[in-house]
Amino acid sequence: xxxxxxxxxxxxxxxxxxxxxxxxxxxxxxxxxxxxxxxxxxxxxxxxxxxxxxxxxxxxxxxxxxxxxxxxxxxxxxxxxxxxx
Length: 85
Fold this sequence. Notes:
The protein is mainly α and 85 residues long. The chain has a domain at 30-84. It has helices at residues 2-9, 17-45, 49-82.
């Protein structure tokens, strides 16, 4: 039983460390790609107002997703700190 508790405490997130790291990396990478897509749409738009609006909507979604990813990361870190083991 002590070995199981020791293994659960290893690393910053214990048992969930690979999953949390993967989700964090995917979220940050997806927001980077989405931001680049929004910039490319904006750059190609020229005088087309619909494309400028699309680029703004894509950027809005990207920043909302990035905010949720970073907020989830922060909240999970606080839960791990506050939860006694």
